[in-house]
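Hey, quick one: can you model this chain's 3D structure?
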Amino acid sequence: MPRRMVFLDIRKAWLTIVMPPRPSWSASRAAQSLRSRSFNDELML
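Sure thing. Here's the predicted structure for all 45 residues.
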């Protein structure tokens, strides 16, 4: 296993341990904004 993958795994585990709600919140927020943007594009067409 490369050292970089180990580092990324440790960082991911640290993020999930230290601040669990924020990544999912930002991901859902990004998905929501992307969805609304595509919806607006459909309205313009």
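One thing worth noting: The helical segments are 3-18, 21-44.
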